[in-house]
Amino acid sequence: MNSDSDNLKEKDQLRLLKELYARIDTLRSEQPFAELDIRQFSHVGITDTKRVLEKVLGSLPVGLALVLPETGEIIYVNREFEQIYGLTHADIPSAALFFEKVLPDLDERISALARIVKTLQVGDPQKSQWDDELITDQSGRRKTISSLSFRLSSPELLITAVMDVTRRVVAENELAFSERRYREMVEAAPYAVIVLDSDLKITAWSRGSETIFGWAAGEVIGRAPYEFMMPHSNRELTSRVLASLYDEGQEQENINQNITKSGETITCRWKNRAMRDSEGRITSIISTGEDITKELHLEEQFRQSQKMEAVGRLAGGIAHDFNNLLTTIIGFSEIGLIEKGISPSVKESLDEIHLAAKRAAAMTHQLLSFSRKQVMQLRAHDINGIISNLVNMLSRLIGEDISLDVWLTSEPCVAEIDTGQFEQVIM
Predict the structure, then answer these.
(1) Tens digits of residue pLDDT in 168-210
(2) Helix 2-26 vs helix 106-122: angle between axes, to the nearest 10 degrees?
(3) Phi-psi group of 72: left, alpha or beta (phi > 0 → left; psi -120 to 50 → alpha; rest → beta)
(4) Distance in angstroms (rounded) separating the CA atoms of residues 312 and 364
(5) Could you tell me if 225 and 256 are in contact, meaning their C-beta atoms sit under 8 angstroms apart?
(6) 282-291 and 379-382 as β-strands: parallel, antiparallel, unpaired?
(7) What pLDDT, in 10s, does the model give residues 53-66?
(8) What is the pTM of this model?
(9) CA dihedral sign, ordered 66, 69, 75, 80
(10) 285, 245 contact by CB (below 8 A)
């Protein structure tokens, strides 16, 4: 079965080769593509002329092969042609043998021959060109070549010029990979990357730009940023930044407000870099922007917390002095309570003074503890008792137009609390 298949493939190859030679033989035009004018060498002998031609052709950086269209015989190949394919002229006396060695895979060889025939059928009858074709030299290396075949009318010759473009193709592939890698890096960045041309029109808009501002690339390419994403109040600042780029240097930084697609105003930090040509003229501007709205909000919160800390330290100092006054009040109220012969109404007032001073001392202690960042003092207390002590003060604080009803449990309700903190919550 395999033998029959191979025989069919061999027949396809022979058919295509015959068709190739027949097509080449019919490719004639009224005006020859080139003429090999031997008369310019008329002052030297035939042997010298041949030697001069071989020396010239052999020194060319382009591979050359001369083929007789009628028979497919390769009558000459230069040194560059032999180096590209790793074959000597003796190895490839005919085009058929050349294709067999260069394209050892039968399917690949038939495909290449069919492509050549098709190109000759639809292309310029005088010449045919193939770019970036893959071949295998005799060492097994894969190479990329570009070739051009054309016919001479006199003498009857088919000339094929070949160039090894492997290095160029590899360099182009590496450049394309590098460009793709850096583009993916830019697209993955969380900040905006915008490229402007010399007329300040947008030519590139990254995915980060779309995330921050809301517009897709198709909506902004070709537009100027000040048309849609800059408040009128910031245009003067933007003009100064751009003017400094043109007049002073390569890079400028600024912070300004911008408008998103939803109409929200945000604050962005921008870095603008000018790209110049060899004559120093700006060809483009690359702007990278970061939304710092939340950052500025956090900074404001931090400044506010610093103010609160300063107020806390001030309050701590005042509380310390106030605590000294409360100590005096508590002391004198206790002396008054132990005096004999005081009326019940005076005793009741002294009790209230003493109790209020004690509560104030507890709250002052709490304020001092907070300002000094001390750990709360948790102790077991009956919550019912603490609330009962607060009732009279609360009644006076809320006023006569509000009634205060308190329901306490019949049994003690004990919990570990800081009394100052608990009373502050109740207050």
Answers:
(1) 888 988 988 888 888 888 787 888 999 999 888 999 999 999 9
(2) 20
(3) left
(4) 12
(5) no
(6) unpaired
(7) 677 777 788 898 98
(8) 0.49
(9) positive
(10) yes
